[in-house]
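Design request, tokens follow.
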């Protein structure tokens, strides 16, 4: 095991940023989530949300982005390991996609709870 190397840590950030860029440019659903997140941020800024509401919104947006990227990684790994159509591979991909759906639904629920008072005034 080697010690801490600052240059390696900087390089690891570069790889992570590259992964985010790959998700943005290659994944249609990620771009849809990105547009939705931008709309939410504009609304949150317009309504001057409280700090605690911003925390919920930020957590929700992050949850969707994270699950979408994990889903993408799982799908690509499954395709690499099992390029042929395989029922088990399909189930694995469906489960990962289901995680994204749950995170998106949870984010919508949080968004409704946070924004409801502003739209009902």
């Amino acid at each position: 095991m080697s010690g801490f190397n600052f240059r390696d840590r900087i390089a690891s950030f570069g790889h992570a940023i590259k992964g985010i860029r790959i998700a943005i440019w290659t994944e249609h659903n990620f771009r849809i989530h990105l547009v939705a997140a931008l709309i939410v941020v504009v609304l949150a800024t317009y309504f001057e949300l409280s700090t605690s509401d911003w925390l919920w919104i930020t957590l929700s947006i992050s949850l969707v982005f994270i699950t979408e990227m994990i889903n993408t990684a799982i799908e690509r790994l499954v395709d690499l390991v099992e390029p042929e159509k395989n029922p088990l591979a399909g189930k694995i991909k469906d489960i990962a996609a289901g995680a994204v759906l749950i995170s998106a639904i949870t984010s919508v629920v949080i968004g409704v709870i946070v924004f409801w008072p502003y739209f009902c005034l």
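Comment from the thread starter after seeing the answer: thanks! DSSP finds four helices and no strands in the chain.
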